[in-house]
Amino acid sequence: MLRYRLQTTDYRLLEVSALPIPIRVVSSSPDLFGDLRVSSDRRPTRPSRTVRSSHVSDAGCFSSDGEKELLRQIDISGRPGRDGADGHSFLVADRSPGMHGRRGGDAGAAQAGEDGGHVRLWIGYGAGGRQRDVMELQGEVSARGQAVPSFSDQVPIGDAGYYFIEGGGGRGGDGGRGGDGQPGSVGYRGRNATRFSSGTNGGPGGNGGDAGDPSDGASGGRGGEVILTVGDRDQGLLMLLKGNLVGGDIGFAGEPGRGGKGGRGGRGGSSYHWTETHYYTDSQGRRRPRTVMRFNPGGFNGPDGRDGSPSRYRAADGMQGAAGRLRIVVMDRSGNERHYESPYDLELVSFDVASEYEILEPDSLISIDNLVVRNCGGMPLPDNYEIRVYLQSDRWLIYDQADLVLQKPLEPGETYTFSQAGLRVRLGDYVVDDPRNQSFRLHHVVNPIASMESGISRSFRNFENGDSIQVRFPIELTPISALHSLAPGESTRVIWAVKNISQETFDQKYLYRAVRSSVRFLAGDLDPKHVIFFDDGDQNYDLVASPFQKRIGELRPGDTQVIETRVGIRQSDDVIPYQSFSVGVDLDLQRPKSSDDADAYRCVDYRKAMIRVSERYVPVSYTHLRAHETERLIAYAVFCL
């Protein structure tokens, strides 16, 4: 008997501790004013989060990131912190020549995310007890600087939805960006040269202003703080409350500004050119003119200013907000209190799968045995609420509705094994009715569910810890071996085998399940009268009239029985080349002994092969050729070589 072993691996965690807030119940308040609100039939709303805080202790069945179906919602989440203001940037240089740029402004500080609020609730059935199917909540709620000291609410329990407390801390503000430094201004221009003086150099460009410093990201706010008080006979109501007390996300560091660009040096003064004419008397006593070219040089361009320095401050991201706190107070009728840091919860540790046969086959029975469950929460399971373990039926798992009931209220960390009973399941039936390239295989998950009943009708989410089983048949066909084309007058062997892949013996005798294999003619465009078939004894058999059936005897574990038949195409001028026909091979097995139709056969494998008519090959004979034709043919062959 084959058994599978499963093991759980992960838990959902949340930090929990005490919060000393007294309960004061005065009157009903249908709406928590301002941003503090109670809403019904909608999902919790949160700002988008990039980083999530991890839960740091086992929060049992309370922790949740959000619910699709809501009875009500209380929103005490903290507001996000304000982002830091960007530093002032100076983008335009000073108009005065040669002026240095101003330093960019430093970014303003970011604001930390607001802490989640506080909730203290007493939960119970109120007047009328469980029969009313109504949960009553009373207490006080405060968040965002506002408070409702006399909160009261009543919700029908029904069979779906949760009362959700959204108490995440606010996201920290992002750091501001440092301001850009001011560009340096262009240097002053040098004086141009004149006839009486040289040009002067241009002035130096102004230095660029240094970049402003960014600011750090702010830390997220702390998650909210919740106290739930419940009577010792009403602890099942804790299954209806979910909450998100995660710490606020980090604020991201601001970006540094850029230094200002250094100003260009001033242009040097231009040079000055002129000519002078002088007269002189040559050797013959004549007066002649002489032109002299003169100039005064211009000045050099001034040096460029240096660029402003980047910010040397490396801003840091904020810190993740601390997770919120949860405290549960259980009060008995004498007023005695027991305090817990998380509610109860139930998880599946392991289970075995026992089967009717060594191979799990369709329409057979399996049993989910030795289920081991564990209270993975922080308080005992209530002893006056029924907890059922069951399976949900689907196409492949047909559950007989005989649930397991947890008989013991488990302490935190305590396990319980259902050693005396299991979950009885019949695997869904399957009959092969189309040709297959490979044998039937199915992988299906078996996933038991635990639910608290007694008017609660909610499942333990952390319980699910399923594993996959493989469903198949214990015998299989090998692919058909045959020629795929035959000329008229030719035949081919059709060979296949039946394999036993299980540890079960199959035979035609009493107490064994019987196996048979059949081959049948399948329609094609070839006229069936041209097809001839020979059985495994090489005797002619009319396959068109009825399938040929072979009963398999004494098929032991691991054995393979080969079946060989023959099929051919009659010699006839009426056979048209390239027409075809097919043969199909079935494998039938009696149903499992536990089936209502245990004596009936069903097809568990089906293969198909197609055979096509080919033209007959006629070899060329040279004996009838004349001598000159033979010589010509030989000469042509030599030429081709």
* Main sheet properties: 6 strands, mixed
Strand fraction equals 25-35%
Rg (C-alpha, Å): 46 Å
Q: Bin the helical content.
A: under 10%
Distinct helical segment count: 1
> What is the count of β-strands?
33
Report, as a whole number of angstroms, the end-to-end distance. Answer: 73 Å
| Shape call | flat
Spatial strand order of the main sheet: 5-4-3-7-11-12
* Structural category: mainly beta
- Uncertain segments: 1-58
Averaged pLDDT: 86
Short description:
The chain is mainly β and 641 residues long. It has one helix spanning 627-640; strands at 37-39, 70-75, 118-124, 134-143, 146-156, 162-166, 225-231, 241-244, 272-281, 287-296, 325-331, 337-340, 346-355, 365-375, 387-390, 397-399, 404-405, 415-418, 423-427, 441-446, 449-452, 458-459, 467-472, 475-477, 485-486, 491-500, 515-522, 531-534, 540-541, 548-552, 560-569, 580-590, 601-613.
Could you describe the 3D structure shown?
The protein is mostly beta strands and 641 residues long. It is 2% helix and 33% strand. The chain is built from one helix and 33 strands. The protein has one helix at 627-640, and strands at residues 37-39, 70-75, 118-124, 134-143, 146-156, 162-166, 225-231, 241-244, 272-281, 287-296, 325-331, 337-340, 346-355, 365-375, 387-390, 397-399, 404-405, 415-418, 423-427, 441-446, 449-452, 458-459, 467-472, 475-477, 485-486, 491-500, 515-522, 531-534, 540-541, 548-552, 560-569, 580-590, 601-613. The strands form eight sheets. Strands 5-4-3-7-11-12 form a six-stranded mixed sheet, with no helix packed on it. Strands 13, 14, 16, 18 and 19 form a five-stranded antiparallel sheet that branches. A five-stranded antiparallel sheet has the order 24-26-31-28-29, with no helix packed on it. A hairpin with a 5-residue loop joins strand 11 (325-331) and strand 12. The chain is flat and about 150 Å long. Mean pLDDT is 86; it is low at 1-58.
